[in-house]
Input
Amino acid sequence: MQDKPIDKQDILKELEELHKLDYKYSDGRILGSMCTEAHPFAKEVYFKFLDTNLGDPGLFKGTKHIETEVINSIGELLSLDEAYGNIVTGGTEANLMAIRAARNHARKYKGIVDGEIIIPESAHFSFKKAADMLNLKIVEAKLDENYKIDVDALKDVISDKTVAIVAIAGTTELGLIDPIEEISKIAFENNIYFHVDAAFGGFSIPFLRMAGYDLPVFDFSLPGVCSITVDPHKMGLAPIPAGGIIFRKEEYLEVMAVDSPYLTVKTQSTIVGTRLGASSAATFAIMKYFGKEGYCDLAENMMKNTRFLYEEIIKIGYDVVCRPELNIIAFNHPKMEAGLLAEKLEKRGWKVSVAKCPVAIRMVLMNHIKMNHLKELVEDLKEIF
Ligand code: 0PR
Output
């Protein structure tokens, strides 16, 4: 740090120069991100609540009420009358809280000490972080030929050390939904904690179902489901950071509670202490602003774009990995390696990512990708072919 204060204008100039190095969602070139530009109204509200701290909710009673309302609204979307949980920094923290709740619950009620979690091969890497931090062993459940959890293989790996089973509603690489209803039954019968990671799909599957899309149930209407991750900062159009963790019962928060004697509340279950109220306020605002109708339109629009690109890609001759269930498309050139294809696209300005399972170009069609961008992309894909 320099000794003397610097003029605001000079600081801003330096920051703007650096900001220019960032890609902008509005250019329509970011095809490998699950985040998008937050809605301007959500950003406005976020700014107003920047100084609120949900780590000490007795000081910020209004903002705590807002968080509770948001959790209840998301809970209602997920078929839960009374929801418990928090708005956190993202899917990673939400998954970490879920696995911590499962581990502590199993320790308290079943006496399991060296616990294991069963996650699909398609699970987001946040579960590896959670297992590492919580000292749990990861047991992978194999996928079937459709890249979804193979339910029989899952049954085979359940043991008396299993503290949680995880399934995904909107996988990171392919946007697929695991057979959650079947897994819920297995978890329920075996009295095992079942967490659904709907970080990506949670803000679109319920709305697509309302709009008549034939997508499976993944929520608390299934009795085995104990918690769900749903991220407002992905398909919810809330500003980063906004993740959501919803629990079926309060006892899952209670088993994580530690004493916080000098605060205005006497226990705390979240991982983070001082935490943003702005994320809750912005999520509250955007959910009210869109309503179910607004989110239905958004989700349907992204699916229409996905269908358009999917059909065009097939017409050109690329091999698609699977029929998209949500707004993610993965495909390969019949003769060109995915890495090389990604490089060629990158040279033309497209920021794509390469999926690992299976290796393929992966495109996430978020709200910042409009039809004009897709038409340009199709032209480039034709030329490269
Ligand atoms: N669960 C699922 C199913 C996810 O896809 C992700 C993130 C997480 C949990 C973790 O969420 P947070 O990153 O909010 O903690 N999926 C994306 C990914 O890792 C996140 C992302 C977003 C990556 C924007 C790149 C990017 O530009 O691929």
In short: Residues 33-35, 90-92, 95, 124, 126, 168, 172, 197, 199-200, 231, 243 surround 0PR (CB under 6 Å). The mean pLDDT is 97. The domain at 41-287 is CATH 3.40.640.10 (Aspartate Aminotransferase; domain 2). The chain has two domains: 9-38+292-384, 41-287.
